[in-house]
Amino acid sequence: MLSAVRNSLATKQGVAKYAAAENYWRTLTNKSYATKTAAAGQNIVFIDGVRTPFLQSGTAYKNLIAYDLARHSLVALQKKIGISKEIVEYIIYGTVMQEVRTSNIGREAALAAGYSDRTPAHTVTMACISSNQAITTGMGLIACGAYDVIVAGGVEFMSDIPIRHSRSMRSLMLQANKAKTVGQKLGLLAGIRPGHFVPDLPAVAEFSSGETMGHSGDRLTAAFGISRKEQDDYALRSHTLAAKAQEQGYLTDVIPYKVPNVSQVVDKDNGIRVSTPEQLSKLKPAFVKPYGTVTAANASFLTDGASAALIMTEEKALQLGLTPKAYLRNFTYVSQDPVDQLLLGPTYAIPKVLGKAKLSIKDIGVWEIHEAFAGQILANLKALDSDWFAQNYLGKSTKVGVPDLNKWNAWGGSLSIGHPFAATGIRLATHTANRLIREDQQFGLIAACAAGGQGVGMIMERYPGAKI
After folding, report:
1. Considering the entire predicted model, what is its pTM?
2. What is the pLDDT of residues 270-329, one digit of tens each?
3. CB 216 within 8 A of CB 292
4. How far apart are CA 71 and CA 111, in angstroms?
5. What are 93's strand-pairing partners?
6. Residue 449 falls in the annotated catalytic set
7. Which of 372, 449, 456, 459 is catalytic?
8. Is 43 in contact with 313 (CB distance < 8 Å)?
9. 309 in Cβ contact with 428 (< 8 Å)
10. pLDDT digits (tens, 9 = 90+) for 371-406
11. In terms of Cα–Cα distance, which of 246, 243, 248 is closest to 267?
12. Per the residue annotation, which of 45, 128, 318, 364 is the catalytic one?
């Protein structure tokens, strides 16, 4: 297959790049996984990803809608990579809190961004792993030969979430709309009572359990014996590393955004704050009061933001003269008890995706794990390091083990950078690709938990000759 693809390339530059890639594969003789993957089908590559600055809800983006941020991410992606929009064959976009006027936000944002009206687009939702789902759905479409070039992305806008009238009010209004005479309409409207005006707010709790994620986080930390100080220390680590990465210019996926009618351009994440341990210790519990340990500082905050990434076959990338940043390798989705194990998705996903890839923890040079809560991260690390948990829940005889924390979320994570639900997956993938290059590592692993007791695990591999 390698020779057939190489012979089909249109340019000498493409031939040279593919020859380099082929030589790289031949050096991986000690990784049978890699050669099997190359022989099994077309390689799928991650070209690059971008995102708006992630902002705390209610700040500079507050007068926009999700559509505005999604459109910007798609425009920015095309401009950064320098490709024609016409080569994009399909767009998959994630969102969780849907704006009712743009329910298929992938299509609406694509049209507004100037992508062809002949380019299909659909929207996916899988809570915090929605844009992971966008990527892997795109991988599936490419793998089955339906398309060669796909944009995946995600957006969340927590500054203006949809709030409905109560069901009784909605029912009355629908009846009034169907009424045939003015008298009938007035008769129905005369039945409105104060209780009709109580709004139907979006759920902040799991539908299956009735419990908020923060409450679940508090129970999880108690179950694993994680102290308030441990959580605050981890949160401080996240903010400190994010601030350092921001200062060093490592967060190159951020594309500045000019908010209409605002003079200052938004050019960086605004939730990164390095506090002191003393300041963190003074905060009160946010969910289980007064004894809980999850606070506003050691939990991810409500965030506005959007992201997008370009993926395609390796063959197509080389034909276009593009150097990918990484190969997209294995992925898996997991689900477990949404009550007691709501936030343990990474513990289930990490060994499963490593097994699929025939890799070990020691093979992973870059870890990018979604930080819903500091306690959630620490609980997953303890579960990975537990023989008892492995034997009783993972079907393994011994523990998975603890990753090298020097390679873990080295540029901060959702606790500090922010967590616009459906946009986080692309951020994780782009940071993984960029860190693989900057830190000269071969394999990166992404994992995240999501509402409903679900989770994702993904493996990426640095592309030879890739640059930031």
Report:
1. 0.89
2. 999 999 999 999 999 999 999 999 999 999 999 999 999 999 999 999 999 999 999 999
3. no
4. 8
5. 123, 153
6. yes
7. 449
8. yes
9. no
10. 999 999 999 999 999 999 999 999 999 999 999 999
11. 246
12. 128
